[in-house]
Design brief:
- By secondary structure, the chain is of the alpha+beta class.
- It folds into two domains: 252 residues, no CATH class; 72 residues.
- 63% of the residues lie in helices and 17% in strands.
- About 1% of the residues have low confidence.
């Protein structure tokens, strides 16, 4: 490795470490907000929350790497431009392409890491996170079973409990449109209501239509249905392709799945595109007394995040073709990079 490469990498990696920490914390804050409802309603403790967030770190890291790299590049190159280091490099006969080669090389490595995380690590870790959250919710059921109490199961059926004894529940009724389920006894465990030796009566208007007996039955409380729905970004590329193929077979829309699939490739690739953009911007700023500054760095970084979000929504709604929605932000920054390199100082 050349001296120039070591110097550039040392400067950028220092900012990258801080950028990754900040971006990951911000993304984890958003993840925590999504699960805040189930957590607060059951008083789940700090240990469960910490375990849940720990399993969500790979997802935040995969999503945050490109943004953190853009932030690090802009800060490092802006400082080097302000200190005239880039001018010294050019005056020494080192071409812009030599500097960009190192930046793009690091961006390509980060892109490979991001794709591996998104394809292999994130699906498994996100599933673990949901299991932690589900177990915590099951340990603290939302329903308070008292004699004569009503509550709702996961399908919206109304459940009545006549008595609560040490051995379980007595005189249980399940009321739904057109049917009544009655059991003399049952028990409640792990967020699920188990009934034994009951009858099921269906009605045609106000008249009984059928009467059937059952040995065992179970139903899940509505509290379990409050878990955040697993987003498509947590699925692997293979799982997304399977969903797309199934949707095509059924003739149902699959814009959201296709957008998520293409984003599995486009989001990590943004790291390499950002190397060209940040380098082009830094060399363009050498042509005058302009400096980007911290506010400019934050603004440019936020612009990518906003563009990324808008394109994603448009792709999921079918307004844009899925591959355009996924690669659109990358292509936009690539066009800006080529324009800046074309007019920037050589």
């Amino acid at each position: 490795m050349k001296t120039l490469d070591r110097y550039l990498l040392r400067e950028i990696l220092a900012y990258l470490a801080g950028g990754v920490a900040v971006v990951v914390l911000l993304l984890l804050g958003g993840v925590l907000f999504e699960a805040l409802g189930p957590l607060l309603t059951r008083g789940i403790g700090g240990l469960e929350v910490a375990r849940y967030l720990a399993w969500r770190v790979p997802e935040a890291l995969a999503r945050g790497l490109p943004i953190a790299y853009l932030f690090a590049l802009l800060l490092a190159l802006s400082r080097m431009a302000e200190d005239a280091e880039l001018k010294v490099l050019l005056a020494s006969g080192i071409p812009r392409s030599r500097v960009l080669l190192t930046l793009v090389g690091l961006g390509t490595a980060l892109a490979g890491l991001g794709f591996w995380l998104g394809a292999q690590v994130v699906p498994a870790s996100s599933q673990k996170a949901r299991e932690v959250l589900q177990q915590a919710i099951l340990a603290r059921p939302l329903a308070l079973l008292e004699p004569g109490s009503f509550f709702t199961d996961a399908t919206g059926e109304l459940v009545y409990v006549g008595q609560v004894a040490e051995g379980g529940l007595k005189d249980v009724r399940v009321l739904s449109p057109g049917a009544v389920l009655a059991a003399p006894e049952g028990r409640f465990a792990g967020g699920t209501l188990f009934l034994q030796k009951g009858i099921r009566i269906t009605y045609d208007g106000s008249r009984p239509r059928t009467v059937a007996t059952f040995a065992k039955a179970k139903m899940t409380l509505r509290g379990l249905a409050t878990l955040p729905r697993a987003p498509l970004s947590e699925l692997s590329p293979a799982a997304l392709k399977a969903r797309i193929a199934e949707a095509k077979r059924r003739g149902t829309p699959y814009a959201a799945e296709a957008t998520a699939y293409w984003r599995k490739w486009a989001e990590p690739a943004a790291s390499a595109v950002f190397a060209l953009f940040a380098g082009g911007l830094a060399f363009w700023l050498l042509g005058g007394t302009r400096t980007l500054g911290l506010v400019g760095v934050v603004t440019v970084t936020f612009f990518y995040y906003a563009t990324w979000s808008v394109f994603r929504i448009m792709g999921e709604q079918g307004v844009l073709a899925p591959w355009i929605a996924a690669w659109g932000p990358d292509l936009l920054y690539l066009a800006l990079a080529l324009g800046l390199l074309g007019v920037g100082r050589r």
